[in-house]
Amino acid sequence: MDFRDELPVDHRLANVYRIGAGLCGVVLLVFGCLGLADGLAFFSTTGQSVAGLTSNGLLSWISIATAAVLIVGAAIGGNTASTINIVVGTLFVLSGFVNLALLDSGANVLAFRIPNVLFSFVMGLVIATFGMYGRVSAKLPLDNPYWRHRHPEAAAPATSRRLSGSAPAGIAGPTR
């Protein structure tokens, strides 16, 4: 059985993944479009201010491409949106570290400054958190599809106990 079959299309977690990807995608799309509308130089290492952050044409196009990936993930939804959120969030955090190392150098092709680095860290953590919500935790509820997938031997008995209303000692029942 494929794991995608275990997560229902209408599962409540799918909405979290979609909303997170969509909102973050829209923010990046607006930032990128504002940068392009200002006619920024493509490879300027000094950049110009756009919405409180420095940007150039290259960063604007990268923001639009990233926004497109997130918005497509939001449109697809489910595990795909979750995985896209985790990957893009991780890339944002890594980008923050790389661009922090490149500040005040000629290799700063994205015209990053400290506010951009902080934005990259925060946005990366927000996007990744949307992707990991309900998927990565030490205490997932027993009705969580990710918990059931990781513990198939305990999932069937736990599900039957949950339906009957009893839980064995040491195992917490589902919380809502």
TrEMBL record:
Keywords from the named record: Membrane, Transmembrane, Transmembrane helix
Xref: Pfam families: DUF4383
Task: Report which superkingdom the organism of origin falls in.
Answer: Bacteria
Q: Where are the transmembrane segments?
A: 21-43, 58-77, 84-102, 114-133
- PROSITE patterns linked to this entry: PROKAR_LIPOPROTEIN
Region Disordered, as annotated, extends over 154-176
Quote the protein name from its UniProt record: DUF4383 domain-containing protein
| Naturally occurring in which organism (per UniProt) | Kitasatospora terrestris
